[in-house]
Design brief:
The protein has 114 residues and is of the alpha+beta class. It has one helix and five strands. The chain has one domain: Alpha-Beta Complex (Peptide Deformylase). The N and C termini lie far apart (39 Å).
Length: 114
């Protein structure tokens, strides 16, 4: 598994909706793939990495956590709640090195809280 960048021809072919990971008939071990994605994320200096950035068309991403929580492997994620509070941060993408934009992020709000 390797990071796909803007120099790779296959990046354009990955601009299709990602498939949901099927836990009843898994195509691979999601935990093992997630751990490998985390290794790539750290090696490349990222904060997160999506499966399609490593050539897998599934709804999986990984992100750095805190030392107390550890890193996260997210499979078939859903947004279930949003906060009205916003923060403005600069965002970049490992697949497009050197490119960054100003983006709006929403705070995570656990289900049932505001």
């Amino acid at each position: 598994m390797k990071l796909i960048t803007d120099l790779d021809d296959c990046l354009d072919s990955l601009q299709v909706p990602c498939m949901e990971f099927d836990f009843t008939n898994p195509p691979f071990n999601a935990y093992d793939i997630g751990k490998e994605m985390i290794e790539i994320m750290y090696k490349e200096g990222g904060l997160g990495l999506a499966a399609n950035q490593v050539g897998l068309n599934y709804r999986i991403f990984v992100m750095r956590g805190t030392p107390e929580q550890g890193d996260f492997i997210c499979v078939n994620p859903r947004i279930v709640n949003l906060s009205v509070e916003q923060i403005l941060l600069e965002e970049s993408c490992l697949s497009y090195p050197g490119l960054s934009n100003l983006s709006i992020y929403w705070y995570y709000c656990p289900s049932g809280t505001t």
